[in-house]
Amino acid sequence: MADTPPPVTQELCDWIHRLCLSDIPEEKVTRCKYLILDGLACALIGAHLPWSEDAVKGVLSIEPEGSCNIIGWERKIGPLAAALLNSTFIQGFELDDYHREAPIHSNSIVLPTLLATIEHCNPQSATDTTPLTGAEFLLAAIVGFETGPRVGLGVYGIEVLSHGWHSGAIFGPSAAAASATKLMQLSAPMIEDAVGIACTQAGGLMSAQYESTVKRMQHGFAARNGLFAAFMARSGYTGIKKVLERPYGGFLSTFSQGNGRTPPYQPERVVEGIDSTWEIDQILVKPYASMAATHGTIDAISALQAKYPGELKGNRIRRINVELSEPAFKKGGWEPKYPLTVTGAQMSCAYAAAMQILEGAVQPAQFAPAQLERQDVWTLMGKIKCVHNPDFDHTMAAIWQQRVHVELWEGDEQSGESKTLVQYIDAPRGNKVPLSNEEILGKWRSNTKDVIDQERREAIEKLVLGLEGVDDVRGLVELLRRRTGNVFDAASGHGHGYKSVGSKI
Fold first, then answer.
1. Among residues of the chain, what percentage have pLDDT more than 70?
2. Do 178 and 325 lie in a common domain?
3. Which of 38, 307, 338, 415 might form a disulfide with 411, Cβ 3.0–4.6 angstroms?
């Protein structure tokens, strides 16, 4: 039949099975190593955040000791629970990567999955003690980095956010299954089983962004579920065949319902240019500790501060309008209400704008609990209004556009005289022009300096950037398992930096 969807699930799984490291351009392999380093920084920072400690406490109350390490805790737990928690750490502070067109935080899916796979099983059989090499780890990571976005592009990527789905939690299970099955060296039919088992577990609601801390964990659900799928397929359990393209109850047809697009989904995008186009090029590293849609707002305010030094003071601001595309408006344009959680603050364009104006930065220190109570922050946020600009919705590239209007009092409020400063941002820093490898390395060193010691930091850095030559990647697990500090202690100046022992859970 002419309207029969192409068999993209099988084609994707065949590609996963046959891909070799030598098939991948050298610069893509190098970029992957820097992306991994950024993801590990996020995990180390996130391990002892207050909500991460709550997550560990809850999971340890129901899960027995197991084979896999919890990053930064010197505790072991089962592989599924370890993947869940370690992913929660990476997503813990909105510092991790995102894909430009198909929003997914790839490191929070792929790295916890691979670390759990390394510790729980060897790739060939239960009796095989052959070490897992860094090259094998690197290849499996690239497979995961490629698979998640490709599956997302089949449902128009960022489109699912506009309909209330947490996009990365939707695309993530397939990425986890792909990376784990590649590391396990499963056959193509078994990989398809795993993808089928993974996709039927996809889920995640964007309402998690407001008051809850579960938003931090939703990529962890995807990592856990994709890893579970890989283990089940490895044991011979049969998954949904042709899961991506099935017209009834398939992944693409189901998650595209109601989007108003023609056609509603694009199976061909899953495998388009699969041997020549690399989605790793679209994986972006964040320069700020907040949700990606807030970055344009931060950049616009920062640009105005540079142009008009000394003018953007809280007491001079009459009002601020922030124009956003529909996806950005729905994710970050909502009106903050007191009390505000750290999660909510990191998802709010108004909070990001206020912090950039008042402190000139939107980094971990700006989200310490005391910051959320500041009266000057709430006063300034009350002057900020976000609006949807439909002109920013026309293309995938256009959705990153933002325009900020800052109206300043010329004299005082009684005079009624004011002037308006306007700044347009085509795309935020690190988006159209990704952060360089050197910038990522600088971010790694800066963000980890207060949670681990220099010797450990340098050892991780050397291992990751030389992964192709690592004979046994389990050395990375040992470096990650040791206790980490609390970044809020360092931000407040009252803690002990990397020597902090955190809570005694």
1. 94
2. no
3. 415
Instruction: Indicate the pLDDT class of residue 394, thresholds 50, 70 and 90.
Output: confident
Which residue type does 279 have? E
Decide if 365 is inside a domain: yes
Residue 466 lies in a domain: no
End-to-end CA distance of the chain: 59
Mean pLDDT of the 28-50 span: 97
Count CB-CB contacts under 10 A for residue 407: 16
Torsion of CA 282, 285, 289, 293, to 10 degrees: -20
CATH number at residue 41: 1.10.4100.10
DSSP symbols for 289-347: SS-GGGHHHHHHHHHHHHHSTTT--GGGEEEEEEEE-HHHHHHH-SPP-SS--HHHHHT
pLDDT of residue 503: 37
- Please say if the pLDDT value at position 159 is more than 50: yes
| Claim: this prediction has a pTM higher than 0.85 | yes
How many whole angstroms separate alpha carbon 39 and alpha carbon 450?
Answer: 17
Q: What is the CATH number of the domain that holds 338?
A: 3.30.1330.120
User: Based on the domain organization, do 297 and 271 belong to the same domain?
Assistant: no
DSSP state of 273: T
> 284, 300, 316: which is the final residue of a domain?
284
Neighbours of 60 (CB within 10 A): 17
Q: How many CB atoms lie within 10 A of CB 302?
A: 20
129/22 same-domain check: yes
DSSP 3-state assignment of 77? strand
Encode pLDDT of 237-272 as tens digits: 999 999 999 999 999 999 999 999 999 999 999 999
82 with 47: CB under 8 angstroms?
Answer: no
Residue type, 164: G
Q: Provide the number of structural domains found in the chain.
A: 2
Task: Answer with the one of 284, 314, 332 that is the final residue of a domain.
Answer: 284
Cα–Cα distance for residue pair 294/328, rounded to 1 Å: 8
Q: Are residues 298 and 221 in the same domain?
A: no
The number of C-alpha atoms within 13 Å of 323 and in the hemisphere containing its C-beta is: 18
Residue 408, domain extent:
292-425
Exposure of 223 by Cβ count < 10 A (0-12 exposed, 13-18 middle, 19+ buried)?
buried
Could you tell me how many residues make up the chain? 505
Q: State the alpha helices, DSSP H only, in 91-187.
A: 106-120, 134-153, 159-162, 167-184
pLDDT at 125 over 80: no
185 and 75 in a common domain: yes
414 pLDDT higher than 90: no
Place of tokens 């430009």: 100
